[in-house]
Amino acid sequence: MLPPVPATPPAAFDPDLIRDRSVRGRVAQWFMAHARWLFAALRTFHPNLRLGRYVLVTRRDDVEEVLSHADCFHVRFGTRLAALHPEAPATPIPGIGTDGPQYPPALETISQVVPFADIPAVTAIVRHFAEASVAGRTRLDAGALAWLTQAELGRRYLGLNLNDGNLSRFGLCCLAIGNYIFGPQTETSAAFQAGRGAAAEISGMLRRSIAHARAAPPSATGPATVLGRLVVAGLDDCIIESTLTGLLAALVPASTLAVINTVQVLLRQPNAMAAARAAAVAGDDVALFRCLFEALRFQPILPGLFRECIADGVIAGGTARQRHVRAGDVVFASTASGMFDPQRVAVPGRFDPDRPAADTMLFGFGRHWCVGFAVGRVQLIETLRPMLRRGFRQPWADRFNITWFGTFPESLMVRLG
Description:
The longest helix is centred in the middle third of the chain and has 32 residues, at 237-268. A hairpin with a 2-residue loop joins strand 11 (403-405) and strand 12. The model is unreliable at 1-8 (pLDDT under 50). The radius of gyration is 21 Å and the shape is globular. The chain has one domain (18-83, 104-391, 403-416): CATH 1.10.630.10. The chain contains 17 helices and 13 strands. The chain is 52% helix and 10% strand. The strands form four sheets. The protein has a five-stranded mixed β-sheet with strand order 2-3-9-6-4, covered by helices on one side. The chain is of the alpha+beta class.
């Protein structure tokens, strides 16, 4: 069993520490949305650019090479993840931040508690929440809809003990944890401290939820929720908490960004908006997903994945772009660049819903392909479907009023109908 929550926990989570309304922040976010132009230049002139101990990899072949060689390039989130469980730092968080022999068991754990058979239930939860949020509105905060939908899934699907009063707070805490784990901030930054405070708050919520599930009658605990399955399996509280933390840290930020970034691309590209709306009105889920997935390629969830080099090696050996790497180097494999590499992707700058699925690297590549892909697919379709059926646009005034929450647009106002 987990020890009780310490009497003197880390500093309370303060959302304002991570909110960014500054011009500098907006410039940084604009760059993130348009970085593919910089990547195009790097692919041509410096495809494996070294900056001190960092190596930026931009060619599709080389990105695949880095992400395929787990013996040389490891995920580098272990220290930050371990800090989320100071009482038991050796407890792994399944699904993220792991490599080596512990990775297959982590995937097995996730696949057992989040099986494909759950997709209809997830679909129903997201569809109901999104349709209720859009109904009767002429103005909608698409950003809030995205992360509140994830919080609703935490309550209805994961089985967490949440209510309407703390649903919003829970969603923001999950975004702050995502920024803490995957963001580039230093350990002394305000955003980093906000993430630690959010993690402590989420830990308290999870422990209360676990205690509530254990106190419930066996007939009420059942396998209907992820938490119910974990409790019925007889797992230790620490393992249950770490598993739920991994799910929240991976699924909530990624799904939120997928929805918000897709909305922004649809607003910028009329042809993409027209194709997606036609598919939504026609009820063609296959065509709708192809449109949304292709739109997301233009502004992906992440520009790439960091990997830590654990042994000396070579990237693109035997080619003109060959780059030697040393143990301790940090390699940034730009999946965003790889999806626009003209040597591997036909007419990459064209919006094409019918392009081969192999062109995309939106959910990773190979060994670390996102295990939550199926759930993320449902969330993307069902969150945006009611908005697309109504039609939406963004007046010029609202384009300058986006509130950023670390790397996430917290508020993104649109007009419906």
